[in-house]
Queue: 2 jobs
Job 1
Amino acid sequence: MLQLMRDGRPRTRAELIQLTGLARSTVGARVDSLLAAGLLKPAGESRSTGGRPPVRFAFNPTAAVVIGADLGATHATVGLTDLDGTVISDRTVELDIASGPVPVLDRVVDLGRELLKEAKRSRADLAGVGIGLPGPVEHSTGRPASPPIMPGWDGYDVPAHVSAGLGGPVLVDNDVNIMALGEHATVHPHVDHLVFVKVATGIGAGIISGGQLHRGAQGAAGDLGHVAAPHGDGVLCRCGNVGCLEAVASGPAIVGRLERAGVDVHDTRALVDLVRGGNPEAIAEMRAAGREIGAVLASTVSLLNPQVIVVGGLLIQCAESLLAGIREVVYGRSLPLATEQLQIVAARTGGHAGVIGAATMVIQHVLSAEEVERQLANLAS
Ligand SMILES: [Zn+2]
């Protein structure tokens, strides 16, 4: 019933009985306990058909708050959201992930406390904390698993550290899954099959299948960057393999090729500026990278049949040339049935996708039927 109410539409008890097919007494008891928990609130009266007008109820997104933290290689954004995933306030700071878990997570805890204080919410109002990390994470335990750019983090108990400082359940996942959740929740909530591709220093994908994030057996699903690219022959990847997509189509890979061709460009940001400034070599390389990504994505389309492919990450600031290359190959290689309705679009949530996604991960957990059941049982006892 709560899942139904989360669309925000006010409904009367009679409407809920009709919609759920549950008995009058069951709906009555449920509404009462959800009201007591603060998850529903009275929302005015419905028009009367004679007699006392029936009261309407609506989901109350301000019943609790959530902290979402999006940690990158050099920056962190920590935000406070309500139970709809709407950002109330946020803070972006420079934070070097390589300085290790203790100073980084202490800072996240401090920022979280500041945001709670500013919003005049207490730790008791906090439903949970969601964290996105720039490396592989075993989602079930919240521990990073041999993350390449995060020395000292391997196997670290991130949830224990953060819940000691802030409380609440603490859920952790990699940044690409978090961005996929954020983009799905805010821009494509009615799309059940979506693939989010991040193209930046690395390349990765977050897969939404049947409306749920698909993490795979060990949380390693969506590792697109280390699939073999069609023109990857002989190019060494930082993973130790040869010919990976990341080694030919990531920001640093494109920058390297341009530098060898004599173009003055040192990093991915400078590359973005060159493409936006109309540099023909940079545009051509960006489009070629798009085609490599498209070739790997064409297999993904054949396997998963998504409705939408969302492309995000730093390089999407050159959306036109990158998307042109991706579309060229995906539409050319995949079967018409799979591409008939397929949209390939740029991410729209921008800088907030990580925070919203991290919060969404927590909200989906705390508002799941089992969790709500448990909270109501605790409240009743
Ligand atoms: Zn690789």
Note: The two ends are 22 Å apart (CA to CA).
Job 2
Amino acid sequence: MAKKPVAKSAASTHSKPSSINIGISEKDRAAIAAGLSKLLADTYTLYLTTHNFHWNVTGPMFNTLHTMFMAQYTELWNAVDPIAERIRSLGHVAPGSYAQFAQLSSLPDAPTQPPKALDMVRILVEGHEGVARTARSLFAAVDKASDEPSADLLTQRLTVHEQTAWMLRSLLED
Ligand SMILES: [Fe+2]
């Protein structure tokens, strides 16, 4: 008998995200959360690829790239948490499985066989550019809803991805 009200209130909390009243409509919150889920999947995929390359890089640039990739995967690892928690703040569930990330990500999975060092750099340039495109594509929905925290997060992520893409791209020049 005592269990019923507890179960009912827990169920209603989970089944009614519309009870959130932060000034963003349910439809806009859903659209932004769906976009942020893609950004989370892209970021996690790029994190894993960068860590993979930190482990498997070889050749005369080993020291430079091994160290550079560590700084980059650490930054990406730290970035996934605020993205996921923004999704939660909008009343939605954050994806967090390899199956979901594979389905949501616009980036390819890391190659099974380690590429040559400069091919790793090329793959990471394309990865950072891809995440930047995903982040940029969300601004229309975020601006429409006056979702400033999401806009701020997207701006920070764009700055990092565009700067990292430039630094990696510079390694490919003569
Ligand atoms: Fe390490």
Note: The chain has seven helices and no strands.
